[in-house]
């Protein structure tokens, strides 16, 4: 009922209907909030709910190793399956949203995440960890990945796209900020199973908000996108899987795609795969309590929000290629210093690293999405989904290899240094992405 009331109100605000049913543009009241911002808020909350599970892997490596005797490499493999499927699902999710609508896809995705998190409570073998954590949660969170944000931004916004992209990207960090300290406390005081149940409930709580308040397209409520002209809602796109694969093959024939995919793979390797998965156990190796290390990750989430929103603002104003080069270079330098900062207690240099790294965490997303939009136009959401897949493949490799390196070498130092070198490579790759030639606008001569 709430959704129906909101829809009627928005339709009325758009103005009286023309003979063909299309609303007449009318200057909105200054006090009226455009429906696009409501959709953006719902998207933000949804990503927080879906991202809650991403807070768990780094916290549970040691408890699972202690309880079941599974190696860190084995646990890292399950996390890598989750991250890889998260990425590989994203481009198909964007196409499925075109076919079935955003609401339906997201509700199913949230339910899948909750099912995987709850089922993990009863697991007794490592293969079950790979099914529940890897398969179910990977598919569910992948359907709410950054391609979801790209789809919402492309449909509902013309103006402020960079800013909105930054805000929605920061939702994942907000989830980390909310759930990391909470889950760390639950794991420390009550064990890992209640933490998994908490994450499942967080995903389920978001479902009613999505169903009642989310709309698939501005035309559903008789509105134009924010900052743009009214457009009719396109017919549902059939052959979602075929279209997704076709877009991949078309994009793969262009150089910018491989450069964007390569830089974003390194982005994933140096964030989700490295810091999110292995920072807590690495700090714990040096005597730092799990709750303290998790709190540091939560602080990364605070500054991630600031950095990502600011990056979106910068993307609306500066060359996205140069922004990416700066972000990756600074990230690489900070990782090279991290092994020297590990200690049993939190000290000022470590706090500086956390703040610095947090500002840079996913600041790469707004300029990467902007370059996808510049290069691939209407297919940019799906192309970005494939670029995001490379991000998660990079994350998956480091989540697995980082655990193996810890088992083999007894420390994570080699992983920090290798990731710093990779970030330097990404900075160089970003600078050689070519500009897309712009079609000149026709000049109208007054007669």
CATH architecture: Up-down Bundle
- Estimated helix fraction: over 70%
Question: Which runs of at least 5 residues are low in confidence (pLDDT < 50)?
Answer: 1-31, 438-447
Mean pLDDT: 79
* CATH topology category name: Growth Hormone, Chain: A
- Beta-strand portion reads under 5%
Counting H and I runs of at least 4 residues, what is the number of helices?
A: 18
Following the backbone from N to C, one meets helices and strands in this order, namely HHHHHHHHHHHHHHHHHH
Major sheet characteristics:
none
CATH class: Mainly Alpha
Number of domains: 1
How would you name the oligomeric state of the polypeptide chains in this document? single chain
**How many β strands by DSSP?**
0
Region (Disordered): 1-27
Keywords: Membrane, Transmembrane, Transmembrane helix
Biased composition (Polar residues): 1-11
Subcellular location: Cell membrane
Strand and helix layout:
Layout: H1 2-13, H2 35-51, H3 57-68, H4 72-100, H5 102-119, H6 126-142, H7 146-156, H8 161-190, H9 192-213, H10 240-252, H11 255-270, H12 272-285, H13 290-315, H14 320-341, H15 348-360, H16 365-376, H17 380-409, H18 413-431
């Amino acid at each position: 009922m709430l959704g129906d009331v909101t829809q009627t109100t928005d339709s009325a605000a758009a103005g009286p209907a023309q003979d063909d049913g299309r609303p007449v543009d009318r200057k909105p009241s200054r006090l009226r909030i455009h429906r696009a911002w409501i959709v953006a808020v719902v998207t933000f909350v949804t990503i927080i709910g879906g991202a809650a599970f991403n807070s768990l892997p780094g916290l549970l490596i040691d408890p699972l190793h202690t309880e079941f005797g599974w190696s860190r490499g084995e646990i890292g493999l399950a996390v890598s399956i989750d991250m890889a499927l998260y990425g590989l699902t994203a481009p198909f999710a964007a196409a499925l949203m075109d076919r079935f609508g955003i609401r339906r896809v997201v509700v199913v995705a949230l339910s899948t995440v909750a099912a995987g998190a709850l089922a993990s409570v009863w697991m007794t073998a490592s293969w079950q960890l790979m099914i529940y954590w890897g398969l179910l949660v990977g598919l569910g969170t992948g359907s709410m990945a950054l391609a979801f944000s790209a789809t919402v931004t492309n449909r509902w916004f013309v103006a402020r796209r960079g800013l909105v992209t930054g805000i929605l990207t920061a939702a994942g960090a907000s989830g980390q900020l909310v759930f990391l300290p909470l889950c760390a406390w639950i794991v420390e005081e009550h064990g890992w199973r209640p933490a998994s149940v908490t994450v499942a409930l967080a995903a389920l709580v978001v479902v009613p908000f999505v169903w009642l308040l989310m709309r698939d397209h501005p035309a559903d409520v008789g509105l134009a996108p924010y900052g743009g002209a009214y457009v009719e809602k396109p017919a549902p796109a059939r052959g979602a899987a075929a279209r997704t694969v076709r877009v991949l093959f078309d994009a793969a024939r262009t150089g910018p795609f491989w450069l964007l995919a390569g830089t974003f793979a390194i982005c994933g390797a140096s964030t989700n795969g490295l810091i999110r998965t292995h920072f807590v156990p690495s700090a714990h190796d040096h005597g730092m309590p799990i709750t303290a290390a998790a709190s540091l990750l939560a602080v990364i989430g605070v500054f991630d929000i600031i950095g990502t929103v600011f990056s979106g603002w910068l993307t609306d104003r500066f060359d996205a290629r140069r922004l990416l080069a700066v972000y990756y270079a600074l990230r690489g330098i900070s990782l090279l210093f991290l092994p020297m900062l590990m200690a049993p207690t939190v000290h000022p240099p470590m706090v500086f690293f956390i703040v610095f790294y947090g500002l840079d965490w996913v600041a790469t997303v707004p300029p990467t999405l902007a370059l996808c939009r510049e290069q691939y136009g209407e297919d940019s959401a799906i192309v970005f989904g494939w670029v995001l897949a490379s991000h998660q493949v990079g994350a998956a490799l480091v989540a697995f290899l980082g655990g193996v390196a810890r088992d083999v070498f007894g420390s994570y130092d080699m992983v920090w240094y290798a990731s710093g070198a990779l970030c330097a490579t990404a900075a160089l790759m970003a600078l050689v992405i070519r500009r897309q030639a712009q079609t000149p606008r026709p000049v109208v001569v007054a007669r």
